[in-house]
Amino acid sequence: MNDSRPARAREYRTEELAEAAGIPLRTLRFYRERRLLPPPRREGRIAWYSESHLARLRVIADLLERGHTLGGIAELLAAWESGQDVAELLGLEAAIAAPWSQETPVPVTVDELRAAFPGEVDEESLNASLELGYLRVEGDGLTHVSRRLLDASAALVAEGVPLAAVLATARGVRASADALADQFVDLIAEQLLAGLEERLTPGEPTRLAEALDRLREVARTVVDVEFSLAMDRRVQRELKRLTSAMHNR
Fold first, then answer.
1. What CATH architecture applies to the domain 11-83?
2. For residues 201 and 194, what is the distance between their CA atoms, to the nearest angstrom?
3. Which phi and psi (to 5°) does residue 7 adopt?
């Protein structure tokens, strides 16, 4: 005769749950103290944990690997328990935090830099590049943050522009770029993300994530167009100055 009764769900003692989750027992106890885990079922002095507790521990491990803090994880789990889709929230977070730059770092030696910038590389230029973040020390070597910036700098020097002048201009460009980034971040924060915690209805995080992805290209277009127009205006002013100076000779 077949037994049609449903099998009882697996339960774990504290030590068994820690082993199944692949974490130390003290970590499990810490999570319980921080209320990251729901209370276990009690049977006398024995605490019994369910498969849902194990699933929760695996979610916590995954979020820690993604770089979340325990405080942030607690907020996400609270959202989960209130019926919000954690996958949607994570998708929105990923859309916000995804890097804008697509630069390729380049390992370089001082000798390679001297070959790329003949007669221009000295202690002062190296320190300026490190301060700007163009160069960073990694282990026993150096890495340039961007192949495109490295090539552009070398092209300017090849045309006769001193490396010191290139780096001085880079500081100004950095300040202007930071100001542009501040404006776009303020725009998005004020117009799209303001009051976000009060309107995270189902589907809203996904809609916002998709909007942010689209706005990346919009922002790049605005910056490209405005820079081109600004160059046109500046060149025309400079041309008029040069023409006037020539006529007055």
1. Orthogonal Bundle (1.10)
2. 14
3. -65, 145
51, 88 Cβ separation under 8 angstroms: no
- Could you tell me the residue ranges of all domains in the chain? 11-83, 106-247
What is the Cα–Cα distance from 117 to 100, expressed in whole angstroms? 29
- Residue reference for tokens 């010191």: 164
Whether the full predicted model's pTM is greater than 0.90, yes or no, is no
Task: Tell which residue, 45, 47, 10, has the closest CA to residue 32.
Answer: 47
How many CB atoms neighbour CB 205 within 10 A?
23
DSSP string of 25-48? HHHHHHHHHTT-SPPPEEETTEEE
Structure tokens at 154: 């070398």
Q: How far is CA 130 from CA 103, 117, 125, in A?
A: 17, 16, 9
User: Minimal CA–CA distance to 33: which of 74, 86, 78?
Assistant: 74
pLDDT (tens digit, 9 = 90+) per residue, 139-184? 888 999 999 999 999 999 999 999 999 999 999 999 999 999 999 8
